[in-house]
Amino acid sequence: MSDSLKINLTILPEEGLSLVFSQNGEWFRSRFSTEELPDFSLLKADIRCLITRSGDTIYIRGELAAQIGQECGRCLEPATISIGGDFAYTMVPAKTETDQDVELTAAELETGRYSGDFIDLAPIVCEQIVLMAPMRIVCSEGCRGLCPRCGANLNTNSCSCRTQAADSRFAALRNFKVNKQ
Ligand SMILES: [Zn+2]
Ligand SMILES: [Zn+2]
To answer: Residue 169 is part of which domain span?
Structure first.
């Protein structure tokens, strides 16, 4: 499946190549090592892109729409949100043959390198999904989070310590840290 995202530049049409494709969570996970795996999971990503060239420079313009899931940053219940937006990459040939393992990093967002006759869209799409995902997600803007004293989910429960409740954002942050260990 990942091979289908490799673009053969030698047969790129004059007018550009227009692609529409979808990827799922299993594909997304497989693109990361265990240590690099994002905190969120991908449910689905729909991508449209247009690939054009001018000489050796390849231009990729795309549009991403995805659903991601993560536990709510306040109440820790599963939450799903939609993310998306436009992206653009300029790809230039790698300077030397030994440059061919260069991967796109956050510092090289707009310009990437390619070598040989192929461009792989998979790392580009994955990078965009990571970039468009917020640092944390909430199940709803009105989520009341957990009680900082007894841990009750205040969306579904009430507890006797509510009147002394501290800032629920702070509580959520503290719970988040505990949960990460
Ligand atoms: Zn919540
Ligand atoms: Zn409480």
So the answer is: 144-181
Are residues 111 and 30 part of one domain?
yes
Give the pLDDT of residue 2: 44
Distance 80 CA to ligand 1 centre (A): 10
Between the CA of 159 and the centroid of ligand 2 the distance, in Å, is 5
Collapse the DSSP code of 114 into the 3-class scheme (helix H, G, I; strand E, B; otherwise coil) and give the result: strand
Phi, psi of 114 (to 5 degrees): -135, 160
- The answer to whether residues 107 and 127 touch, using CB atoms and an 8 Å cutoff, is no
Model pLDDT for residues 18-32, shown as the tens digit of each residue: 999 999 999 999 999
Residue 31 CA to ligand 1 center (angstroms) comes to: 29
Burial of 41 (0-12, 13-18, 19+ CB in 10 A): middle
C-alpha 87 to ligand 1 mean position (Å) = 30
**Threshold 0.70, pTM exceeds:** yes
Q: How confident is the model at residue 60 (pLDDT cuts 50, 70, 90)?
A: very high
